[in-house]
């Protein structure tokens, strides 16, 4: 330990959405708070994740809607242009990847920001560059995740993209291979395809969106096929090469794919390396930081956000931030619960899900009743016609008569999910859902059709 030593009530290491929220709330509550981050205050979400990617998706969806006009409303010529998308991301979402406003916002609340890598060097001690800060009340860990890059032979020696390079691109390539058919890979693949890029997805599992219901991944695969996206599931990339500005990806069945760019979207990994968590009794090689229902990771240490392994979602991090703040301030609060965790993949159709999938619920020992209603078979789906693909799937526990999970894959799936998220969270009896009046003709009325199919006897 060297250099000057200062003191603060709380040191927050990692100023992504969750860390920034904790730091800002505690500073406003009157505590002396030091926020630490070597990158941009705000984290992945506003600069390389949810915010700019949804701008890309919005633009791509507009192109898709325009292409649905023939046969329904007239004729139209669609000419994709990426330049306004790239310009909007720089001007409106990322401020050209400058966090001056975010830093000033935190400092305006009374916090102090240190740019650098924060390392725990002892009980309540955090070193940032040449300065050591003593946290008298505690430390909050919020270092998030970064792109997980698989150890595929040859990959490390190539100029592959992660989500960051994909978000920052100013000129689209003619072709791209996407490794990974999860949420990030599927969203970006569809965006690029709708702007005219030749896209191939390679997913090692047997379906797209392998963490969600099979019906959701199947729906998406059908849509992608119509849109010209080449989907390869159930195959592993065994080798990657790069020569003459072209990528080659060899699959384990001997198939060789070629493209101008390669996007690695094979998941996320926690950022624990060099954090010094061994000094507080935590495993630096762990896949996540284990926390209790108050977000406590150790004596005088809290952890929030992706680092806790509860889903790499901004809304989870913000939820946890509120609980951690209350716990640090000694306020009464509800303990953390993830039984009704909602998540949305912003493809077209959108895939919204809450709680457990059917497989997860069976593995947990629930006695299940399951219902699936296809969106095109609902009144609104029939009226909507073009772009009406999707399903509503409900997973109920017979013993309690309540939903333990639900999925909506379809137009505005993330918004239709709202009612089902409430039902899972509040444990609303299915019998009660059957007595509700559902507005006609809406997409959410399809929930009534699905509820009517559930056999709880």
Textual characterization of the structure:
The chain is of the alpha/beta class. It folds into three domains: 5-42 and 99-146 and 269-328, FAD/NAD(P)-binding domain (3-Layer(bba) Sandwich), CATH 3.50.50.60; 155-266, FAD/NAD(P)-binding domain (3-Layer(bba) Sandwich); 342-453, Enolase-like, domain 1, CATH 3.30.390.30. Helices cover 31% and strands 26% of the residues. It has 14 helices and 22 strands. The chain has helices spanning 17-28, 44-48, 50-67, 83-93, 100-108, 163-168, 183-194, 214-226, 314-328, 358-363, 379-384, 413-426, 430-434, 446-453; strands at residues 5-13, 33-37, 112-115, 118-122, 125-128, 131-141, 145-147, 175-179, 198-203, 230-233, 237-243, 246-251, 256-259, 261-264, 268-270, 296-298, 301-303, 342-345, 350-355, 368-374, 391-397, 402-410. The strands form five sheets. Strands 1, 2, 3, 4, 5, 6, 16 and 17 form an eight-stranded mixed beta sheet that branches. The chain has a five-stranded antiparallel beta sheet with strand order 18-19-22-21-20, with helices on both faces. Helix 1 runs parallel beside helix 9 (314-328).
């Amino acid at each position: 330990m060297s250099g000057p030593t200062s003191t603060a009530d709380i040191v927050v290491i990692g100023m992504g959405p969750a860390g920034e929220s904790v730091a800002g709330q505690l500073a406003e509550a009157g505590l002396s708070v030091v926020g630490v981050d070597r990158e941009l205050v705000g984290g992945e979400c506003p600069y390389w994740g949810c915010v700019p990617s949804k701008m890309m998706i919005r633009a791509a969806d507009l192109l898709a809607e325009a292409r649905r006009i023939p046969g329904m409303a007239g004729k139209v010529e669609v000419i994709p242009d990426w330049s306004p998308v790239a310009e909007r991301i720089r001007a409106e979402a990322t401020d050209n990847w400058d966090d001056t406003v975010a830093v000033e916002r935190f400092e305006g609340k009374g916090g102090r920001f240190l740019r650098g890598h924060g390392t725990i060097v002892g009980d309540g001690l955090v070193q940032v560059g040449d300065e050591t800060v003593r946290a008298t009340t505690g430390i909050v860990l919020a270092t998030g995740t970064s792109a997980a890059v698989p150890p595929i032979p040859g990959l490390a020696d190539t100029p592959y993209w992660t989500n960051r390079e994909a978000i920052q691109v100013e000129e689209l390539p003619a072709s791209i291979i996407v490794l990974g058919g999860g949420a990030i890979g599927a969203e970006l693949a569809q965006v690029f395809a709708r702007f005219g890029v030749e896209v191939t997805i390679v997913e090692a599992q047997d379906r797209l969106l392998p963490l969600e219901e099979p019906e959701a991944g199947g729906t998406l695969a059908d849509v992608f096929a119509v849109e010209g996206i080449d989907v390869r599931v159930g195959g592993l990339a065994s080798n990657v090469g790069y020569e003459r500005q072209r990528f080659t990806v060899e699959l384990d069945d001997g198939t060789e794919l070629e493209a101008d760019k390669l996007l690695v979207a094979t998941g996320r990994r926690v950022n624990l390396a060099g954090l010094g968590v061994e000094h507080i009794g935590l495993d630096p090689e762990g896949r996540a930081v284990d926390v209790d229902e108050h977000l406590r990771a150790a004596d005088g240490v809290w952890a929030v956000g992706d680092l806790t392994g509860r889903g790499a979602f901004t809304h989870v991090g913000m939820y946890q931030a509120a609980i951690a703040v209350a716990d640090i301030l000694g306020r009464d609060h509800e303990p953390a619960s993830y039984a009704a965790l909602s998540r949305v993949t912003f493809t077209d159709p959108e895939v919204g899900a809450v709680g457990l999938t059917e497989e997860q619920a069976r593995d947990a020992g629930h006695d299940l009743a399951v219902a699936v209603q296809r969106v095109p078979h609902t009144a609104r789906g029939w009226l909507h016609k073009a772009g009406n693909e999707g399903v509503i799937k409900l997973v109920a526990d017979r013993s309690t008569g309540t939903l333990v999970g639900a999925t909506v894959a379809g137009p505005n799936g993330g918004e239709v999910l709202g009612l089902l998220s409430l039902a899972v969270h509040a444990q609303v009896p299915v019998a009660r859902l059957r007595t509700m009046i559902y507005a006609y003709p809406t997409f959410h009325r399809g929930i009534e059709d699905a509820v009517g199919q559930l056999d709880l006897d």
